[in-house]
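Predict structure. Chain length: 1082.
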Amino acid sequence: MRLWILILLPLGLISCNESDTRFVKKSSNQTGIDFQNNLTYTEDFNPYTYRNFFNGGGVALGDINNDGLIDIYFTGNIVDNALYLNKGNWEFENITESAGVLCRDNWSTGATFVDINNDGFLDLYVAKSGKPGGDNRHNELFINQGDLTFIESSKEYGLDIEGLSVHASFFDYDGDLDLDAYVLNNSIRSVGTYDLIEGQRNIPSDDGNQLLENIDNIFYNVSSDKGIYSSNIGFGLGITMSDFNGDLWPDLFISNDFFEKDYLYLNNDGQGFSEESSKYFDALSMGSMGADAADMDNDLIPDLIVTEMLPETLSRQKSKQVYESYDKFSLAGSKGYHKQYPRNAVQRNLGNTFYEVSRQLGLSATEWSWAALLFDMDNDGYKDVYISNGIYKDLLDRDYLTYEANDERISQLLRSGTEVITDLIDLMPSKSVKNSVYRNNGDFTFDDKRKDWGLDEPSFSNGSAYGDLDNDGDLDLVVNNVNSKAFVFENKTKNNNNFLSIRLKGFPKNINAIGSKVILYKSDGNNIMSEQFPSRGFQSSVPYRLHFGLGKEVNIDSVEIFWPNRRRSILKNVSYNQMLEIDFNQIESKVVNPEPTFIVKNKDDNNLIDFTHKENYYIDFDTERLLPQMFSNEGPTISNYDLNNDGIQDFYIGGAKGQTSNIFVSKSSGYEKISTPFEIHKDSEDVQSIFFDADNDGDQDLYVASGGKAFSKLSRTLNDRLYRNEKGIFKYDSSALSFSNFFSTGAAEVGDINNDGYLDIIVGERFDVDTYGIPGSISVLINRGDGTFETTYPPELKNIGMITDISITDINADNKKDIIVVGEWMQISVYMNSENKWELVSDKIGLKDTNGIWQSIESDDFNNDGIPDFVVGNMGQNGFYKPNMKFYLNDFDKNGKLETIYTYKINGDDYPIHDRDELIKQLPELKKKLLYYKDYSVQTINDVFDKDLLLSSYTRYLDETKSLILLSKGPQSYEIIYMPDEIQYSSVHAISIEDVNMDGKKDLILGGNQFLVKPQFGAYDASKGWIMYGSKNSNKLFDNFKPLNIYGQIRDFSIVTDLKSSDSLILIAGISDSKIITKNVK
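Prediction complete.
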């Protein structure tokens, strides 16, 4: 018989009062909560002698006396901690001293309520840090006596750890049904001592992080044996627990400050952990603080947010943020510290891996942010985002570091008095900031709601926790602040959204069922998942209640519980607007043994092609310091054709500079690699290739376009080449092509331009190899019929832009080939072939405001109207390119060399995006004008440069960064259809159109990424390639999409029939600086 227990605890009615805001700050006079974490620095104890001086304290919420009301514990640094007993009706009593949990004269950090002795009462574990010495300097474990008093017993349990502890999390890592622990300890060593030395994390330290195994209620350090790093470079600030890969074992994410990368520990079925952060995260936060994990899009897979210190506005970034150089960033990656960027990280888990999408969501820059909390703030069924912000002293203020804390200034202070350090700290700027609040719109987009929801009071906030303090069915909020009273916010959700709160009762040695996963299934299919891990955010913990906001109309189908012992229970007929207690011992359960179901990398398909693209070493920033990204990784190119008529596709794959390109010809035993005659041109960089019959002899010749940036503009290696096919052997024809100058090719396409029956070639110039920004031209190569070409330079195609791709098709059905040209900082340019000239008609056909960073274009007829449609790849929204961005090209320092200045438009004015030091390094004469960072931070480009100089500059601007589809609406008229948000997570450099699933509808295969970007702007890396499936619904083009699971910078695709099965298709992906990948896509 199935049994389950329903308990209706005292619940207030859902608020129906109309209030101005969702959250209302409760006064200390009303609540009795007057805790204030005051920090006063002295000459011997301050942020110079203790780097975490202003990190602040935490908040722990839990019901210590089992009266159904959540109590509050604050940790103080210099001040004593405080325990407030919830007496109902928003009245709290400070019982700290009588309860025995003051932690007097100790620097407390994190706090966690946990029933360590399983007597039914919550005990309290407090982490300690700060300067050494003093009584009870070790972490303390307070055992609840059941009468509102506690006895300190950490030594008895082996938890009297002494060091720079930050927080602790209790969970059952090994499946033996008792609670183990992870104690996060910040390194006691100085940061620079181990900076970027390879292999340091493998050296254990007694002061490092500790995984503690519970053996008969005594905790033993098993870190090294179980795969946990405990080195001196572990500058951890956050512990985040979740079942990240769906195998029902608890995993760990550790946020590390400074240069050490974050850790993702995946649980190996209770036997230990494997650290996998470099495998599953393409981007990490640099100075990671706290974090939180939760299912943010209701796909029943946990996502992750990690906070950092990037200021919210461009102005504050210029005056408060210090950036690493590209060289140091690259060095860190080569030494095993992975790719770390100075911003928050929002890691969306799409099942195959994590995608860092903070910039597209507008969540990348939220000031000095200590942690995110993910919880449903409005009971609509989606978890919102709360981020606590603020540092009491701006330790990274650029003017302070440059002019106040320099050697000369310190010498002056030493001569003038004795309070040198406190005088220095007094000079540090101090500015409170608003905490960040984002409402989840349900589609993985977020809106800033701090003002609308009454959470916009500036502060220096640190630890925070949520819980239903008044039992009215919504989640209230408690925040610990530095040098001001703690915030206590009552949630007054006024739209009558419903809820369900669940309290789990587990096992004799894990009474609160820590590690459980609960899924609420709704009849509308919008299912919700939550996990029982109370330690969350920064130094804080939440109550042992799982809260589900349900929205207005609710029909709960069932509730599914996955218990920590990997058993599964299901409840039916569950009512809402109640507290539901579920006891494992009173409900039927069945064993489940799942394998990991997500973030599991697929094994590489058997590669048909043995080729690895190897980029030459070239740093664009060495010659053009102000570039935000590099442009020297344009290849590889892939072209295919059945050259030997055996029914199997053969391939040409282009190499990078210094690498020989190859043709791969099919043989019975596989593919034969042919290097002749391509080795003579290995100093060129092959960026595009086309098989076509150039000489009209019935076989396929080969055109190869040379590009890249690592060349002199006088280098012959920039020349494109034609290889004639002579009875299956390719020979270079040096007389076939003739250009008036050398240039870097960005695009090439063939078509019969003059309707003479011969295929001509359209070639687009990529850029000036010395100066990015100078527009290039199109050359039209007219085929004489014998495979030699006359090169023409139509004046209307001169200096049109930095061209990346070309499509040749007949737009207006006049039997003449028109050309569509895309490029960077260019409009989608449609040129009609008309009366021996090329007429630009983009504005006329609906493409007026389409200036973008276009990377690719392909055409097809998606709506079957006989007019070509187009798929156009852009850089996406998850990066530094933005609409209304602009560049100015000029010789700003009058030294004979052009520079490019990039700007963002903010409130109608253009502001340079460059760091002041970076700008001055390129233009030293600006140093006197840009003396102070704070002044430069608010200066427009008109303030920095003379008006006449700007007026004489070549300028380009952006309208659009999204990838899109141009769908014909009739003759010479196009509608813009944007691709899904997920496609905009990164760039689209490669497009292939094919009916992959053979359902009669064309599908899209898309790939991209650009890794070579300065660290302050961040790589375009959140794509693993995509398939978008054509829709059978006439009202839309595509139904759904899925990732390809291809890692790297995809530059080209070819699709061929599988050698072993004509019903299967093989995708060949060309990846910059990586091996060629082959993947079965059907």
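Summary: Confidence is low (pLDDT under 50) at residues 1-19.
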